[in-house]
Amino acid sequence: MNDPSSEDQRDPLDNFFSPQSVAIVGASSKPGKIGHELVRNASQYQFEGQVYPINPNAETILGLKCYPSISDVKERIDLAVYVAASNILPKLVEEAGARGVKNAIIVSGGFKEMGEEKASYEEQLVTIARRYGMRIIGPNCIGVFDSTSRLDTFFYPHDRMVRPNPGGLSFVTQSGTFGLTFLEWATDSRLGIRRLVSLGNRCDVNEIDMVRYLGRDQFTKVIALHLESLSDGRQLIKETREVTKTKPIVVLKTGRVEGSKAARSHTGAITGSYQVCRSIFKRSGMILAESFEELFDISKAIEKQPPSKGRNVTIVTNAAGPSVAAADLCHERDLSIVNYSKETLDKLHSSLPPYAVIGEYVDLTGSATREDYQQTFKIILEDPSINAILNFIVFLNPPLSPDVVDSIAQVQEHGKPIVCWATGGEFSRQLITKLEEAGVPTYPTSERVVRAVEGLIEAGMRKEWPLPKSADSKRDLANSVFRKVFSEGRDMLSEIESKEVLRSYGIETTTDYVAKTDSEARSYSSRLGFPVVMKVLSPDIIHKSDLGGVVTNVGDPEEAARTFKEIVERIQSAKPDSRIEGVIIQNQLSSGVEVIIGSTVDKDFGPVVAFGLGGVFVEAFKDLSYGLAPLFEAEASEMISDTRAARLLEGFRGKKPIDIKKLADIMTKVSFLVSEQPIAEMDLNPVIVSPEGCAVADARIRVKK
Amino acid sequence: MNDPSSEDQRDPLDNFFSPQSVAIVGASSKPGKIGHELVRNASQYQFEGQVYPINPNAETILGLKCYPSISDVKERIDLAVYVAASNILPKLVEEAGARGVKNAIIVSGGFKEMGEEKASYEEQLVTIARRYGMRIIGPNCIGVFDSTSRLDTFFYPHDRMVRPNPGGLSFVTQSGTFGLTFLEWATDSRLGIRRLVSLGNRCDVNEIDMVRYLGRDQFTKVIALHLESLSDGRQLIKETREVTKTKPIVVLKTGRVEGSKAARSHTGAITGSYQVCRSIFKRSGMILAESFEELFDISKAIEKQPPSKGRNVTIVTNAAGPSVAAADLCHERDLSIVNYSKETLDKLHSSLPPYAVIGEYVDLTGSATREDYQQTFKIILEDPSINAILNFIVFLNPPLSPDVVDSIAQVQEHGKPIVCWATGGEFSRQLITKLEEAGVPTYPTSERVVRAVEGLIEAGMRKEWPLPKSADSKRDLANSVFRKVFSEGRDMLSEIESKEVLRSYGIETTTDYVAKTDSEARSYSSRLGFPVVMKVLSPDIIHKSDLGGVVTNVGDPEEAARTFKEIVERIQSAKPDSRIEGVIIQNQLSSGVEVIIGSTVDKDFGPVVAFGLGGVFVEAFKDLSYGLAPLFEAEASEMISDTRAARLLEGFRGKKPIDIKKLADIMTKVSFLVSEQPIAEMDLNPVIVSPEGCAVADARIRVKK
Predict the structure, then answer these.
(1) Chain A contact set for B395 (CB, 8 A)
(2) pLDDT < 70: residue spans in chain A
(3) Contact B428 A184 (CB under 8 A)
(4) How far off is chain B from A484, nearest CA to CA, in Å?
(5) Model confidence, pTM
(6) ipTM of the predicted structure?
(7) How far apart (Å, rounded) are the C-alpha atoms in residues B152 and B145?
(8) Which of A303, B78, B572, B614 has CB 3.0 to 4.6 Å from B594, enough for a Cys bridge?
(9) Which among B83, B181, B201 is the top mutation candidate for probing chain A, defined by the most A β-carbons within 10 Å of its own β-carbon?
């Protein structure tokens, strides 16, 4: 089979997957050598295109005429695949470029991954590619597999590795081993594959190209994506937001450990971390997998089943133990096990034998027959409140006929997703394979079944990103503050300046005065009304409260005057060389929940906004969520509800709930601020939120240098 | 083979596993019937004991003479296995009891699990068992499997289910399906099994009996335990603490969802919850598995490998992707990937080919050969800092000879545990089987490999429970408070009374006075020194602060007098019918971390102590840990470090750390208090902990009725 797209519609990347001719540069006559196995796999199995082995020292390889150089091939070459030492590769690729070859896959390693020196070969490759308008996959990868053209660029022999059948899943990965494993698991569980790309070092073609390309590919129903690092996080999110409007992407990020860097703010400490990536991926339309197995399981479910229209599930089982475990998980993960309607219950009771336990769900017990399963499915499929079915089955029980597989498969005619738990030895395995051949994704543990259903639910959710209203801001005011800071060569804004900037973006803060003397403290505090908060104002002091530079609950003018002197004394004795510019006097907000709204320029994603519980809890609980700035509408509310802190804001034990919309509004405004202004890091901590409103009580902004 | 224990050493439970004669009551002539399959499995395979089918309507079954009743068998019967309707079972079991049979397994269901009415049959069974000194397993179970006697009481035909080989693992489960699945997975991965018990409804023999029994069994190396509910949590913990001194127990708890009950304290709301169970299991010497797969994986690792002597691991790999994921997990789960010594590094660099990447660990890349693996193992096994090896292997790569399996297996000669990642299709599966046959536990995902190694580390930890020092308490004082409360028919102690009780157990509290008038408020507050906290004292008000009944930071005598009046007014208007006994005036503790120490009588475990972050955070974060009261030495500190709140206590950002020992001491004293006094629920919230000390600021105690 050839790719069905006609010549003039072809994408420049198509020739990686459905070339009509392939040159294998570095072909070898020696079995076991990678250059030999590549020729064998391309020429002796199902790929029908021309194969040209290139090697100056051989006449023929595996019966094919061998060419000394790619320049010696007269026919058109759609794709060149390379296995050669990194130092000679630039020359070899240049030959192909000069010859008009537009697509190259470099399987060999020995580049960037070996250190600085070898990285230069990779740079040369990129220069050559740019010059000739070539695209390169790799180096250091296993290349591609296409289930239609049947081309692969693997060095795994066919007798060791069975290639999977065609289907709707495409997998993009940075790991050759994960690529290989995915395909072998797919073959085993009868999961149809469309395409695989192993990206390797990504000197040219990267995950963004591939997401865009496979997003357009009509035969790709779902994209699985595995990344160890991001080429350009912001661009990737932009692309996935587009693609996921019509096609699910399941994503796994590994390589999560980064040396933690010293940073001057809470939020700054987390740049490039998995926590940020995870949080932003979740809000990018992608379905987040936490492990390779989850990536595979969820993708498989989506490839085989329709998405679920909601979180209401039910269980049908003859395996009590695993079903109990699954019910636990449903509750933990917020899947709702449907209460059967009176009608459904009546039908179940009148149709099923007495051994069936009809409770939270239907347990047909070890006595279950095929007919029992059939009856149960028939009844529950008529219940409109059920969105998806979790089916558990022990095939070994003597009363159960193996053709129960057909009854399970028939459920699919009703358009509701079904996912199955089954496991065991050889006998069960054969029936599981039948089940999977019939399209029912089957898993050996309760956890995997539930996660797969959750994936189907996520796949069924509408992905839209309405633009947020532009913040109405007085940018001039903010601009002038930043100009002043830059002109003075500072990198930090004072608390007073920070709050001016915030207010210019419409963000409410406390009212702050700076007292230079105790008598100013007396008069400003009277003007504000009591109680007030007093804080030292000094460019040299970052953690004010650690040095006794913050006093709350100041109750009257005399106390304010006294406190002024005490703060100044404490700071002078604790840090004699610090410049004290005065003492800030601000209104003390009525008690509320202290949250942090922060921002940093993430190395992968650029400006991001963080939200979480404030104060000391930021560090102890790391209960933060993140979003790309500027935030889309509804994104801020999602960020809030993603934290455990959200429960504090919901108002429990008789307290009034917080106005989440108001808090979200501040977050959105912050996201505009950090997108538009030269801000490197920002901590608004605490922001006091209460039923009465939200206001920033302390703020710290560091500018970009 | 017969069980090696001689007749006079036999335990009353031995006949469940190695009987010399078995009667099958309810035997059937009809293939496919459970009563038929049981006879076939017992008589036609490897079990060598006598089998007596019992059925009044058959002459012979499967060539064996059939008896109308168990009374008609003249020979000794060691074990009776039952398949019959629940209503006739009491009579049938009575016949066996009268005949001197001491062990019965009831496979059939139709008892407690079907509701109240049928539960009575189960009670009758127990009465009969007591009368005749019989022990009963079941009903509603799949019974037992013994790998030495080769007896099983399953209805799964041998052609559908291959029984596993003998080995050191015994599995006790409340789920037949999990029992079956465990054995099938064991067969597949060449895990040797000693015994299986499916407990079913546990009318007599329960998990405590089995843990004790298998704890003494010299052929059981590790016990896997799965429970859906607990027969007697406290007794189980007592038993597991004994057994785990010498033998690992891996435990899984399912059935975690309970309808949440209304309760009057934070701590009371969690009785019978998984959170309590999990926390207490962790401190009972058992290794906690969160899923069935984890239960299997960890048990398998322990059965096959020696325990790990520490958390220092290394990785050897030709599979970069999964190794990167494993390194992530090691970091997340606090396993330390060893930094190689200079010597080890030198040896690796000089012995391995240039393609090997020697970094955080050894990545031999896709070019790896058997010799590379061998060299690497040789070198790292000489490094004394490495406790365990995580080996990753893709078998498909052409340069790798399949006999690398032997090199991996040989690592075991050095006594350090090795666990392997490998997966794939048929080719790989065969090599994985060889690897597992050679004793190397192998898993298809990074998560499972890392968790297995973690299990080996936990298995290597010494389990000891030194007795705590008895608290020096003035019990008389506490006793008199409780007497007073009971005599007045109350169920709650006042805050004042609660603190008296606490102080009598040596637990520091705030100093509290009760002011009845504003002028008393003035004088008491002056006596205490400022600031003070003032709280309404009323038996009718539980959540004082919600009604404005608590004021902190009262700064001088006049404010105290004013506050007295304000509190009384607020409470009178909010809840006019409440009895106000006065206003408590107490010293305000210097700022510290607010924690909760609580206690409840758990339905499974009896008195338990809870610890976590206090205030509103208890409900939002559910960051609580639990321990059985009274706590053993070191248990309180473990409970503290189990919470995320622990990080707040460690003192970060320049703050002084809390005296954890002092806090642990309070928890231990609390645990004595709740063990000795008639306390149903107790919340000490907040307990203020600071570098200066710990004291209880508020306390609520409810008595047992």
Answers:
(1) 160
(2) 1-8, 258-271, 469-471, 616, 651-655
(3) yes
(4) 31
(5) 0.94
(6) 0.93
(7) 4
(8) B614
(9) B181
